[in-house]
Write a structure and sequence with these properties.
Blueprint lengths: L1 H29 L11 H26 L6 H4 L3 H25 L2 H25 L8 H28 L11 H9 L8 H23 L2 H34 L7
Amino acid sequence: MLFRNLLSALLDLLAIASALSLPLYLWQVWYPSSDWAVLALVPLFWMMVQGNYKVIILRRRAALVCMLRPGSILTRILKGRIIAACSACLITGVTIPLLAYKALTADGAEIALLALLLIIAVLIIRLLSSFSKVHFNDSFLPSVVSRCTTVLSGLLFLPIYYWFVHDVARIPGYMRSLRFPEAISMALDSLPVRDGWMAETLAAFHALENAKLWAVVNLGNDSVIFLIYAIYSTLICFFFASAIVSVASFYGLMVKGNLYGN
């Protein structure tokens, strides 16, 4: 029994890791040569939307069952699908550009750290799934597990990632000698030359990240540095945790047919 559970957990981890990393890898490889690289992100976008939608729609329909009397005409009108679809697209639409940017700019150490976040999140999913289905109805179970996993994995990983960006990640030397506009311009020059909305989106992320580095180097008091790194680390941890949970929801609810294989 223990071996079977460990094997199942390992297979779930490999499946979720592959679904998340393969599109990002293809995007990273193809982007320097073509804007068509964005097509590599379409499967990831679809999986995240489907995973988020399934979790949201199950919760909303369960809530509507509790709110509406049996036989009410409103049960034919209020399905919850439009709000669920809009919410799923909004969450995914915010997360995908950040994933795409990090795939282009993260070094090996940061990728290894984010892989650790993936392992943490999948382990929490499996533990919470086993615990929560004893206490929650099936319709609410995916929402409870997804939300708790996002929060818990983000919180557990936050000190590790803060340590990395504060003490390990290197700050380019030109940040110390250039004025703010010059430093941002030089940072943007490191991205592949592109036109269009995709390039502008990535440039915005790159400008914000390098503005953070410039502020840390040149504004430099301890409270300001702590605040900048804390905000940055929090955003990265929770957005990446949300992406992992979205893909896990797709895999657990739509591929295996039950909640994360439990």
